[in-house]
Write a structure and sequence with these properties.
The complex is a heterodimer. By secondary structure, chain A is an alpha+beta fold. Chain A folds into 2 domains: 180 residues, no CATH class; 196 residues, no CATH class. Chain A is built from 13 helices and 15 strands. In chain A, the strands form 3 sheets. In chain A, strands 1, 3, 4, 7, 8, 9, 10, 11, 12, 14 and 15 form an 11-stranded mixed sheet that branches. In chain A, strands 2-13 form a two-stranded antiparallel sheet. In chain A, a hairpin with a 2-residue loop joins strand 3 and strand 4. The relative contact order of chain A is 0.19. By secondary structure, chain B is of the alpha/beta class. Chain B has a single domain, classed as Rossmann fold. In chain B, strand 7, helix 6 and strand 8 form a beta-alpha-beta unit. The longest helix of chain B is centred in the C-terminal third of the chain and has 17 residues. In chain B, helix 3 runs parallel beside helix 5 and helix 5 packs parallel to helix 6. Chain B is globular and about 50 Å long. The two termini of chain B are 31 Å apart. The chains are: A alpha+beta, B alpha/beta. At the A-B interface, helix 1, helix 10, helix 11 and helix 13 of A face helix 1, helix 2 and helix 3 of B. The complex binds adenosine-5'-diphosphate and magnesium ion (MG). Adenosine-5'-diphosphate binds next to strand 2 and helix 1 of chain B.
Chain lengths: 399, 222
């Protein structure tokens, strides 16, 4: 009972430095956990994300560009392909569903993607289709739009609202199209990139005034769902090896994994920075306790005069350092939720991929363990100094 | 058997110029249980060093210190800590209260390294020294006289066989000093502890039936 009392008293007696060092532990520990969780969760979420498709067929290009453009609705389209290519793959025996898309317009930064009403029969997750939650599906050939839930919320558009599309994938006020579209429906949230899209009939993009006349018979890509995912191998061979006009990006997860492979060095740098910050924070525990050792000498001498053993004093200092880390790591979870919350929001806004800040990850157990352990270890240095305090000399006040 | 029996005790310090200064050179000293003895000695005559040797805070260069039948001179530091925690109470000129702890907590700490914390006994000791209304006061919220009384209660907290007092009234005014000394002597008697007090103050020494001159006992004192 005595040891916790001594530790608690000391924490209180040096309240300011306790709070400041605990705060630095909180920031460092929160950052460490956040970096880890955002990194592994986004890796996971992006590689699992396929919006319900197995492959993308597009103009000859890098598979990654094709996937980013057609599945994640990011980056520029690598080019168009004729309608006949869609007809060919749609007829292929291995293909369960082929969805042509056309891009090239936006409304206030949110992409308009032209497609067929087949969109609404795609299962983006087992048993879950892209379902209109409010209003109704667009009708082919009409200037109607169904908004992804996130786009609708951000644009504050409701069923019945009307808007003019803008030309290009990036918003430019001068590029307004004359056509007026009406919102007929809003999709149920799917937690896929489709949530950030304004879906319109394919003909809408193809025939938008001011678009190249040639584009009327062209599409940007075909999203493909296979009857059996293994069948992708044959199609890949056909399009990528035997042909040289088109690219068949399959399997999507592997294409995205390659992207993460390319930016793995960035993860490593981030990790390293997080660890360095953690090391600096535990170092600050050491420094603050060590620096206060002079003020503590008299208290230590008094405790020793009352019969406390040197290793009790040693233990008290180590425990005090660990206790600062414990306080800091409790607060670190608030920091962690703050950082992951902001990161998840940004990732969702930019990509439509949803991370869960509250999901469990082992780092949430071993980062606190590591920070507390390292702080206790750092405490050994001032603890040795405390252990060696000369009792007789420090019992008399310095005159 | 005396409570404290000292024989050929020597202690010297290293001086800044590289030499050694012999501070204690005491052929013989005895103290019976439950008695009270005052040691007189001028400033610098080695009084504090002598008490620190008995308390086991300092280790002697040579000689023997038998306390309650146990030879301290050969013990390791942690064993001496244990002896101090269980059998010795120490009262200092500067009180040496822990500033972050209340009166009651200071007294509780006086027992927690030895017999273990006993709140009721701690409270009764503070009541005995007239501080039952100040249990939760911090030292800085108490007068000097009250602080010294907390120190007296703390010295008795581990039910010691021997209380060492190092110029316990040196920081108190005349009236307080007289009362404090009376309190120390009575409290030690009531609790069955022997008292060894060192001082250079004639008025203090005059209160004791048994006064020994450290200058005469200690061959190192000039
Ligand atoms: N740690 C030390 N190192 C060197 N000399 C010391 C030390 N402590 C005390 N002394 C010297 O030992 C002598 C006795 O000191 P002390 O026991 O404090 O005497 P008193 O309590 O009677 O005033 C003094 O001359 C003092 O300067
Ligand atoms: Mg002295």
């Amino acid at each position: 009972m005595t040891l916790p009392l001594i530790v608690a008293k000391s924490l209180r007696q040096h309240l300011l430095s306790t709070v400041v060092t605990a705060a630095s532990i909180a920031l460092a520990g929160g950052l460490l956990m956040a970096v880890w969780v955002v990194k592994t969760q986004s890796n996971d979420a992006f590689t699992k994300q396929n919006a319900g498709f197995d492959a993308v067929l597009g103009a000859r290009s890098a598979k990654l560009q094709l996937v980013l453009n057609a599945i994640f609705h990011l980056e520029a389209s690598p080019g168009n392909l004729p309608w006949t290519d869609y007809e060919d793959i749609a007829k292929n025996a291995a293909v369960a569903l082929a969805l042509p898309i056309a891009v090239g317009d936006n409304y206030r930064g949110y992409r308009l993607v032209g497609t067929t009403t087949n969109l609404f029969s795609v299962e983006h997750a087992p048993g879950r289709k892209y379902r209109v939650a409010e209003g109704e599906e667009f009708a082919a050939g009409y200037m109607e739009a169904v908004l992804g839930s996130f786009a609708a919320r951000q644009l504050k558009l409701k069923v019945g609202d009307k808007f003019h599309p803008y030309h290009g994938l990036n918003f430019d006020e001068k590029q307004k199209h004359e056509e007026l579209y009406v919102v007929t429906g809003i999709l149920e949230p799917s937690n896929t990139p489709a949530d950030r899209v304004i879906w319109i009939p394919l003909e809408g993009i193809q025939n938008m005034k001011g678009h190249d006349a040639k584009s009327a018979a062209e599409i940007s890509a075909v999203l493909v769902k296979l009857k059996n995912p293994i069948a992708g191998r044959g199609l890949e061979l056909m399009y990528n090896k035997q042909g040289n006009r088109l690219t068949f990006a399959w399997p999507i997860a592997q294409v995205v994994a390659e992207l993460f492979g390319k930016i793995a060095w960035f993860d490593k740098v981030l990790e390293l920075v997080a660890w360095l910050v953690a090391a600096v924070a535990t170092g600050s525990v050491l420094a603050s306790i060590y620096n206060s050792m002079n003020e503590r000498r008299r208290d230590i001498a008094i405790l020793r005069a009352l019969g406390a053993r040197a290793h009790t004093i040693f233990l008290a200092v180590v425990l005090e350092c660990a206790a600062i880390a414990v306080l800091g790591m409790v607060a670190a979870f608030a920091v962690y939720l703050g950082i992951t919350g902001v990161a998840a929001h940004i990732i969702r806004t930019e990509t439509g991929v949803v991370l869960n800040a509250f999901a469990w990850h082992p780092i949430l157990a071993w980062a606190p363990a590591a920070m507390i352990g390292l702080s206790a270890l750092a405490g050994v240095i001032p603890a040795v100094k405390a252990y060696r305090t000369n009792v007789a000399e420090n019992l008399v006040p310095v005159s | 058997m005396p409570l404290l029996e000292i024989c050929q005790l020597k202690k010297s310090y290293a001086t800044p110029d590289g030499g050694t200064l012999v501070v204690v050179d005491l052929p013989e000293f005895k103290l019976e249980a439950q008695t009270q003895v005052a040691l007189s000695g001028e400033s610098g005559s080695g009084k504090t060093t002598f008490l620190n040797l008995i308390a086991g805070i300092l280790a002697p260069d040579s000689g023997s210190i038998k306390l309650n039948g146990l030879e301290l001179a050969g013990l390791r530091e942690s064993a001496r800590d244990r002896v101090r925690a269980t059998t010795i109470g120490y009262i200092f000129q500067t009180f040496n209260l822990l500033q972050g702890y209340t009166a009651l907590e200071n007294v509780l700490l006086g027992m927690s390294f030895g017999p273990g914390a006993d709140r009721e006994f701690a409270k009764s000791l503070l009541k005995r020294v007239g501080l039952d209304a100040k249990l939760n006061h911090l030292p800085r919220q108490l007068s000097t006289g009250q602080q010294q009384r907390v120190a007296v209660a703390r010295a008795l907290a581990n039910r010691p066989k021997l209380v060492l007092a190092d110029e316990p009234t040196g920081n108190l005014d005349h009236t307080n000093a007289g009362e404090s000394l009376k309190l120390i002597r009575e409290a030690c008697r009531e609790n069955g502890a022997a008292l060894l007090l060192v001082s250079h103050d004639r008025e203090v020494l005059a209160q004791f039936e048994s006064v020994q001159e450290l200058g005469k006992l200690n061959r190192a004192a000039k």
